[in-house]
Amino acid sequence: MAEFTPQPSCADPQDQQSLNVEQARAHIDTLLLPVSSWQKRALREALGHVLHQPIKSPIQVPPHNNSAMDGYAMHSSDIQADSFTLTQVGIAYAGQPYIGQVAKGECVRIMTGAMMPPECDTVIMQEHVAVDGHSITVHGAQNPGQNVRMAGEDIQQGDSVLPAGHRITPADMGLIASLGIAEVITKRRLRVAFFSTGDELRSIGESLEAGQIYDSNRYTLYGMLKRLDADVLDMGVVPDDKAALKSALQQAATEADVVITSGGVSVGDADYVKEMLAELGEVNFWKIAMKPGRPLAFGKIQDALFFGLPGNPVSVMVTFYQFVQPALRKMAGENPQPLPLMQVQTESAIRKRPGRFEFQRGILFENERGELKVRTTGQQGSGILRSMSVANCFILLDEECDGINPGTIVTVQPFAGLV
Question: Where are the beta strands (DSSP E) in 168-223?
């Protein structure tokens, strides 16, 4: 009888064939090429898109010297140590500047944002002024140039305001509008095709028979991809059949920049994804020393990048956020900045064995003393999708960690900006 040699499984704490998390990220980075095509978009349609060209200001902002508050515009040379009196000769409103001249010893009533008269360089707050007809008396110490916003102090004409590779936010839209720019040049959307694999999967609306489950992964994938403003192609559920899987992968690679599957990348008898990837393209790696989400296949099919995610729902989300999302953002032409990590004291013990990097689901909260703490969501099984729904952070535990005692400082990755 032939000698049996056991193969590493996804449940083993250590496997020499697995990459660590940072090695996997480095492998992915070597194959990333940003999209090169672009299109012109109306500003209102640009939210969430990535700039192909930088935004340069055609004007200076503010376009003129203006008052930072309601008060009186005057010559700084009229300032005296204690109190002094000036004659009011007019009023300047925002959008309606005073058009006369202001001589020494005179002032103009001015509103916040109104253009400063050319002769004036200082604004006295109205709270420091006593009014008597057309005369005002200023009380208290005043400083030359106070309460004035200078032309171009925010943005100079020709300044690069937003760089290429920046994903446009609502604040950016307002900033661009303030420059009088109606259209922007952005990258085209990244095209992403995705499908689930498995004979046990059924779509919403179908009846479940024995051993069948509803496909949740396509809905989480759809939501995560739409958050990235990707152009998504949902190809549904592909059965555990080599011919069907091969056909789906070929179609997806023809129509998309990136192909994502869930399920079928482990070592089961019906797990064909890695085999088909090797036949149609190339396998860069297929296992990572992490939990959840060890069986992650990465490679290429034709010109499309391929990510074969695990089948368990939590594993799909963890691998997407840690590997797929950063890759898609770079491929979309974005220059993403690393999200900040936090050092937080854990409220209770956390179970873990050495060997794999773990992304445990956690809840950041303030205790009764206003101190920021973290606790796990409870059971950390890769099939417990509710743990992602109630969590607001990942608790990051490295390969050497052998469990955590209450009160220990741990590294936390908040969901804000990630999920």
Answer: 183-187, 191-197, 201-202, 213-214
Within 10 angstroms of residue 65's Cβ, the number of other Cβ atoms is: 18
- Classify residue 124 by burial, with Cβ atoms within 10 Å: 0-12, 13-18, 19+: buried
Q: CA geometry: angle at 227 spanning 223 and 229, to 5°? A: 115
- Alpha-helical (H) ranges within 85-206 are 170-178
Strand partners, 42: 183
Q: How far apart are CA 247 and CA 303, in angstroms?
A: 16
**Do 295 and 344 contact (CB within 8 A), yes or no?**
no
- What are 299's strand-pairing partners? 283, 306
| HSE-up of residue 123 (Cα within 13 Å, Cβ side) | 26
- Tokens (6 digits) for 46: 């640009």
Q: Where are the beta strands (DSSP E) in 48-83?
A: 55-56, 66-67, 71-74
Nearest residue to 203 via CA among 212, 211, 194, 193: 212
**pTM (2 d.p.):** 0.85
Residue 224 phi/psi, 5-degree rounding, is -65, -35
Alpha-carbon span 165 to 52, nearest angstrom: 6
Angle at 292 between CA 287 and CA 295, to 5 degrees: 25
How does pLDDT run across 292-326, given as a tens digit for each residue? 998 899 999 999 999 999 989 999 999 999 999 99
Helix then strand then coil, in percent of the chain rounded to 5, is 20, 30, 50
DSSP state letter for 320: I
Q: pLDDT tens-digit profile of 20-39? A: 999 999 999 999 999 999 99
Q: How far apart are CA 357 and CA 394, in angstroms?
A: 12
Q: What is the pLDDT of residue 270?
A: 45
Indicate the average pLDDT of the chain: 92
Q: List the structure tokens of 160.
A: 């690069």
Residue 58, classed as helix, strand or coil, is: coil
Query: Among candidates 290, 312, 315, which has minimal Cα distance to 398?
Result: 290
Positive or negative CA dihedral for 292, 295, 300, 304? Answer: negative
What are 39's strand-pairing partners? 186
Look at the block and give the residue holding tokens 């661009």. 176
Nearest to 49 by CA among 419, 329, 260: 329
Segment 58-89, tens digit of pLDDT: 999 999 999 999 999 999 999 998 899 999 99
